[in-house]
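Subject: for your reference before the review

Hello V.,

The reviewers asked for a structural picture of the protein, and I figured it would be easier to keep everything in one thread rather than splitting it across files. Below is the amino acid sequence we used in the manuscript, unchanged from the supplementary table.
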Amino acid sequence: MYVRKTLLVFGIWVYGLLSIPLFAQTRFQKAYGGPADDYGFAGQQTADKGFIVCGYTDSYGAGRHDCYVVKIDSAGAASWYHTYGGTNDDQGYAIQQTTDGGAVMTGYTKSFGSSGYDVLLLKLTAQGDTAWANVYGGLKNDFGNAVQQTADGGFIIAGYTLSYPAAADSGSAYLIRTDAHGNLLWSTSFGGPSQITAAYSVLQTPDKGFAVTGFTNAFGEPNGDLFLAKTDSNGNLLFLKTYGGKGADWGNSISLTTGGGYAILGSASTDSTSTNINAYLVVTDATGDTLYTRIYGGTKTDYGQSIQQTPGGGYA
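And here is what came back from the structure prediction:
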């Protein structure tokens, strides 16, 4: 499983793409944290034109790593920050503002749950206080990588599980569907024996189903491919397609397109040794058939982490 760590330094840039090279004007750049290590994994602009960021902190809290959420105003000043966790390892990997003005965060916890690591779903008020927290998983390690509020006010989580089906040396993509209070409605996993399939991004589709992307070497090339999986509203798998070459390829972010298809951004190895890595864009139709792919980057390592379609039909 690929782990993406970023220092908790948040910057807002405006890009004007005239030609290569790319020019950027920095609006602000701020650091948040204390005397020890603090990491940010995900952020989103909020309805008040500010931002909310999650990750983990070693500077504050009750344990070795605690989930760390910082609310930032439009000028970059921290409005509040909160930590969440116990005496063991707790980390936040994805956050989204909810329709009630609060936020929902997923990640993992070793402080609470059955054993090992479990998926954490944390609902926050607009002031950052805990409304409720739930954990999901089995007897082995389970991780939450992405979360989205669904049309009915509930939540869908995508991640990675070693508990379902039980497999000592492999892992499966993990989907968890809850109601608005975090109560489990259903969960499902898909992958292959003695192989790795991990989900990194999920969204609800117009038909109330879900589209998921991530990494798999259970299907496609043995070094691993970017995958797109489509399920119905109950998590039943409708199709799974892979994209990439002989090296390792994976998807980090998925967005709906105006044509009803999907745009997936991730990374691709341009050789079988997986040493030359570039940002990788895959655009498909609604059935997952490839419309086009693009590679971005230079002679060293370049990663694609997040994508969104813009009003003009392009992508940021």
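For the response letter, the relevant points are probably these. The chain has no helices and 22 strands. The radius of gyration is 19 Å.

Happy to draft the paragraph if you're swamped.

O.
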